[in-house]
Specification:
Helices cover 56% and strands 9% of the residues. It is an alpha/beta fold. The protein has 4 domains: 63 residues, no CATH class; 167 residues, Nucleotidyltransferase, domain 5, CATH 3.30.420; 185 residues, no CATH class; 67 residues, no CATH class. It has a 5-stranded mixed sheet. Strands 1-2 form a two-stranded antiparallel sheet. Strand 3 and strand 4 form a beta hairpin.
Length: 556
């Protein structure tokens, strides 16, 4: 008969609490451990534990009894926990170091792939912007967008260059050229530089753009590059011409009174719960869409705000003034249109021609708004129209004032985007080469353009694919047209990618991770924001393979 195998619990092989006092033993990670010498006993049997204590520590520790023995046990336990915490920190530091090394290796792999891509570019452009991290180090973000001979577009992050001193145009230029040289760009293929329009970026003499032009002229006296001021940034600057401070001041003051004090905010939210409404957001100048969102919510909650402020003894008299309410309604609708435009301009891999078309379309809309409001027609201003239809409202729109504001906004758009008008001819050819008039195009592409327009296969393809894909089908018979297309496709219309990177930078290098090194921050961002590139894991694994003992070797 086969005897039944006894279990640990049946033999009472579990750690007993009394052994802590009797033999200075405690259970650590499921195993009996001597608090004196930290030796681990394999099996939780009292005989084994007692044998270890009597043979090793009894002569010294039997002198402790009663309260003294309990205090000694506590002291030894605390000492053991301190040792374990040190080991844990060392282990965590080791793990962190391993993870950092792996991220750096992934980043280096991406960088080597980017260098291979850059070597094949026939045209490339650069977007740069500068921001300050949590430790007050100025960080220069550099992005590259290039087109190869197959008309494939690559838009990738190059490097985040720390600038610990000044951030003059010369400092930024040195950092920029250093970053691009490290990936081996051919400077003769530079098309444009896109910036946020700051003085150190676009200054005529000491700006980065001016210095880059000087550098390229030394390589090729005929080389010209385009300086592009971020289209999104320009749109934000244009909206500042709508000087409605008498509206915004009242709105911001009321919002801050409600939101800045915890009690007020809680009480206001309770009021909104009764009416099944949502909360009231803060206004932040640095957020592109903030003004429109705050104005819209303020208008929707104007009754609740008026009631709440009255109960707090802070009456907002403007909420009873229909001229002011009319201005508020106009601003709600106008900022809604501007926010819609801003949203369309955002995003990665945007063609500059698409962004230019959005700006042109908005200018046409502004002309329509001006004509309709002049005729007392608020068809595209729904908030103003709804206010106009209320019984208390007199029904007459301040046409002259609003038409004048729209006219100023239209002129502001025309002035700030005047430089893009110089590129409209090239943009028009790129967008629809089949509709371009050869007589109005540069002489060096006229014959190619006629041949292209008579190519029925390409004309059919043009109608079935997007514009970027179309030029991949344009063959070597049209080198000048492809050259024009590659330059336009490589251009950055905005510094959106840089702003996106800075948001990611602030998430990774925060107050809780302020000691993150610049090298590791750069590697982390390169891996996180990569678009068309991906780390070659198989290649990295191959380099990590160990030499296996007993593997086949060549014998003589």
């Amino acid at each position: 008969m086969i005897s039944k195998k006894r279990t640990v619990t049946e033999e009472n092989r579990v750690m007993q609490e009394k052994w802590k006092i009797s033999y200075f033993f405690a259970e650590v990670n499921g195993k009996p451990t001597c608090l004196i010498c930290n030796q681990i006993i394999a099996v939780s049997k009292e005989y084994n534990i007692r044998q270890h204590y009597t043979s090793t520590h009894a002569s010294k520790y039997d002198v402790y009894s009663g309260k003294l023995r309990e205090e000694k046990v506590k002291t030894l336990e605390q000492s053991l926990k301190r040792q374990q915490s040190v080991y844990q920190r060392v282990h965590e530091a080791s793990d962190t170091a391993v993870r950092a090394k792996r991220v750096n290796e992934l980043s280096e792999n991406l960088n080597s792939q980017l260098k291979e891509k850059v070597a094949k570019f026939v045209a490339f452009s650069v977007a740069i912007d500068e921001s300050t991290d949590i430790t007050d180090i100025a960080q220069l973000a550099v992005f590259i967008r290039g087109v190869d001979e197959n008309m494939q577009v690559t838009e990738e992050f190059v490097e985040l260059v720390p600038m610990k001193g000044t951030t003059t145009g010369d400092d930024i230029f040195v950092s920029l050229t250093g970053a691009l040289d490290r990936i081996g760009v051919d400077w003769k293929k530079t098309v444009s530089l896109t910036t946020d329009g700051a003085s150190q970026m676009v200054g005529r003499k000491a700006g980065v753009t001016a210095k880059l032009k000087e550098k390229l002229l030394t390589l090729n006296s005929d080389h010209q590059i385009h300086s592009v001021h971020c289209i999104i940034h320009r749109e934000v600057l244009c909206r500042k011409i709508l000087k409605m401070d008498h509206v915004m001041d009242v709105v911001v003051k009321a919002v801050n009174f409600i939101r800045a004090r915890g009690l007020n905010h809680r009480q206001f939210n309770c009021l909104l719960e009764e009416t099944h409404s949502h909360g009231l957001p803060y206004h932040t100048d640095v957020r592109w869409l903030s003004r429109g969102i705050v104005l819209k919510r303020f208008y929707e909650l104007r009754s609740e705000i008026q009631s709440f402020m009255h109960n707090k003894g802070r009456n907002v008299q403007e909420l009873k003034d229909y001229d002011w309410l009319q201005d508020l309604a106009f601003m709600v609708d106008m900022t809604e249109h501007l926010n819609l435009l801003n949203t369309r301009l955002q995003g990665r891999n945007k063609l500059v021609t698409d962004m230019h078309e959005s700006i042109r379309a908005f200018e046409v809309k502004l002309k329509l708004f001006e004509r309709q409001l002049a005729a007392n027609n608020a068809a595209h201003f729904p908030t103003l129209k709804s206010l106009q239809s209320t019984p208390e409202f007199r029904g007459i729109i301040s046409r002259e004032k609003y038409c004048n504001m729209i006219s100023k906004l239209l002129n502001e758009f025309g002035e700030r985007f005047a430089d893009l008008k110089n590129l409209e001819s090239d943009f028009s050819i790129f967008r629809n080469p089949f509709a371009a008039n050869p007589d109005e195009t540069p002489e060096d592409i006229q014959l190619e353009l006629i041949d292209l327009q008579c190519d029925s296969a390409l004309k059919e393809k043009f109608s079935s694919v997007d514009i970027g894909t179309f030029y991949q089908y344009v063959g070597p018979r049209y080198p000048r047209i492809k050259c024009l297309a590659s330059k336009i496709m490589s251009m950055f219309g905005s510094t959106y990618v840089c702003e996106q990177l800075f948001s990611l930078m602030n998430l990774n290098k925060s107050g809780l991770r302020s000691r993150l090194t610049n090298e590791h921050l750069n590697s982390t961002l390169k891996v996180a924001i990569a678009q068309s590139l991906a780390p070659n894991i198989d290649e990295l694994v191959q380099t990590k393979r160990c030499q296996v003992s007993g593997s086949s070797t060549t014998r003589n």
